[in-house]
Amino acid sequence: MKGNEAVAEAAIRSGCRLYFAYPITPQSELIEYMARMMPKVNGTFLQAESEVSAINMVYGAAGCGKRVMTSSSSPGISLKMEGISYIAGAELPAVIVNVQRGGPGLGDIQPAQGDYYQATKGGGHGDYRLIVMAPASVQEFADMASDAFDLADKYRNPVMILADGMLGQMMEPVEFKEPLTDAEIEEMPKQHDSWCIRPNEDGDKKHHHEINSLEIDPVVLEQHVNNLYKKYAEIEKNEISYESYDVSDDNEVLCVAWGTASRIVKSAINELKKDGKSVGMIRPINVWPYPYEAIAKAIGPNVKKVYVFELNTGQMLDDVKIAVAGKVPVEFWGKVGGVVFTPAEIKEKLEACF
Amino acid sequence: MEKIAYRPESLTKTPFTYCPGCLHGVAHRLIAEAVDEQGLINKMTGVAPVGCSVFAYKFFNFDMAQAAHGRAPAVATGMKRSRPDMHVFTYQGDGDLAAIGTAEIVHAANRGEHISVFFVNNAIYGMTGGQMAPTTLPDMKTTTSPYGRDTADVGHPIRVCELLDTLISPYYIERVSLLTPADIIKAKKAVSKAIQYNKEGRGFTFVEFISTCPTNWGLDPLKSRDWAKEHMLPFFKTGCFRDKGAE
Amino acid sequence: MPRMTVDPNYCKGCGLCIAACPKKIIRFSEKINDKGYHYAECFEQETCIACKMCYVTCPDVAITVEK
């Protein structure tokens, strides 16, 4: 199944019954799939007038405690940044899918990884964090839909699935989880009854819930932001996720790559293995929270260099440098513009390390 | 002795933060009265804008959301689509609705979203200190049109009711004034109708209030009303633009 | 007997009720509330006809009218 469609199907199976988005290449298949399938499950599909409007519709629906999703690609994600900041500030659960393309500006429609900074270092204003998941296969892309909704609900925070045009377009076999039943979907918003907008059915005990990120008293805002960061500390403790590939004490080079780039690096690593050259890779699956410790620990006794490969000018590179903390040199090679490197090119770069 | 006029239950006890004589409070009260009269308090919710009424979420005695500038109709759309059993309104000023939020209001109206929009037009940006609004009148001096609004440079004021009236979907559109007690009584009828149509699930309802901004117009509350009567009402004509329920 | 009362905690001394009252029986108090406003007060309750115009025009919902 195509990546774009797989994540949509997985979202529906996870109980998402509200989807608001605007068309943009390379994720138009996602919105079109939702347009066809949402009505079939009596869900709401709405093509908004802009990505700005879509993220605000998400804010409204999330404020009502319901599972809601939007998707877009790089320039459209930029438009959503104000809304994402509001969602984080108001502590609302929401899932945002970014199918990255070449940038900056209008860029092109080919796959890229140029939005890493935007996703993990905050694209919206103010102190907040997005949980960011970076799939590297269509199966992972689909699996992340339910994980994203679960984490969003658990932590009352927006979650981004940071994919790219290649994952969106490629077709791979997918196994889906059993869909949630209507009864389960009905029950789901009740976990948010203590804060969400909902009718007053408490009898005499009326509630007055506010979905809001404004706190005009600086002392109160300070407390609020500190509370947000206590939450983020919990997330950093609990939600580290990465893959170790061929990491061993024999490694002479340790690669770090994410998403589509990691697949190409894996191919190169396999080729080098045949030549008796030992290279390992840590692939962050969640890029926020970032597996700093895992990378540091993976630097084996024979590792001469940590090599980062990305389809950008070196964004996750910064996080790798933090993880490595100067223990060994960190090298970077990337391709931009939506041009994707080949296993042969990666192999060549790695060979030069031996 | 019985109370025949008193603070509606749909308003909290929190004092309004508006300037003395600002008519926002009247608009709030009319909405609250209508919600009370129609027994909707347990299912009502609204969206506060960015502007002087940003704190509206503190003033209405039911669940409220606060939205990014201009985005209230989109937020309301998300809310209504996710909890159709609730009644949703937005409350917006001229910057929120007619400047940054033009796309959101036009499209929410065009989709015929089942929400009520209450639009307070006082021809200026109040909260940020008196800048020009899309509804500022020609030659009117504001802090960003210090020499008077030059229509050759920045165009004429926008008449939102007329604009929305070109769309097919909206159900009810009316412009009212808050400038005299008699006008307020008429305005209350429009607000009640909008809320009633909303409750009955008839479609998109829109009420524009002609209001004042004593502080930024540099006039006292009474003179502000006179100024608005003289300058705003000739351009922003009150009246019902459409009422599909009356057909 | 009809009466209007102003809650001094809400009144901002805007004067709209004073202008609205057809019997002209509302004035600014000599006293000030804790926000510093001379709040409105009815000085001749026996003349009040409970027309509610003061309530209708008050932007702070400071007024209660009884009949």
Structural features, described:
The complex is a heterotrimer of chains A (354), B (247) and C (67). With 354 residues, chain A is an alpha/beta fold. Chain A has 2 domains: 3-190, Rossmann fold (3-Layer(aba) Sandwich); 242-351, Rossmann fold, CATH 3.40.50. Helix content of chain A is 41%, strand content 17%. Chain A is globular. Chain A starts with a helix and ends with a helix. Chain B has 10 helices and 8 strands. Chain B has helices spanning 24-37, 56-59, 72-82, 94-98, 102-111, 151-154, 160-164, 181-199, 214-217, 221-235, and strands at 3-5, 44-48, 64-66, 87-93, 115-121, 172-177, 205-210, 239-243. In chain B, strands 3-2-4-5-7-6-8 form a 7-stranded mixed sheet, with helices on both faces. In chain B, helix 1 crosses helix 8 (181-199). The radius of gyration of chain B is 17 Å and the shape is globular. By secondary structure, chain C is an alpha+beta fold. The termini of chain C are close together. Classes of the chains: A alpha/beta (354), B alpha/beta (247), C alpha+beta (67). Chain A binds chain B through residues 18, 20, 44, 46, 48-50, 52-54, 56-64, 66, 68, 82-83, 86, 90, 197-201, 206-214, and chain B through 12, 41-43, 45, 47, 54, 57-58, 61-68, 71, 74-83, 85-86, 103-104, 106-107, 111.
Q: If strands are numbered along the chain, what order do they take across the biggest sheet of chain A?
A: 2-1-3-4-6-5-11
Low-confidence stretches of chain C: none
How much helicity do the residues of chain A have? 40-55%
Radius of gyration of chain A: 21 Å
The name CATH uses for the topology of the largest domain in chain A is Rossmann fold
**So how many helices of chain C?**
2
What is the count of distinct domains of chain C? 1
Helix fraction of chain C by DSSP (H/I, runs of at least 4): 10-25%
Distance N to C terminus of chain C: 6 Å
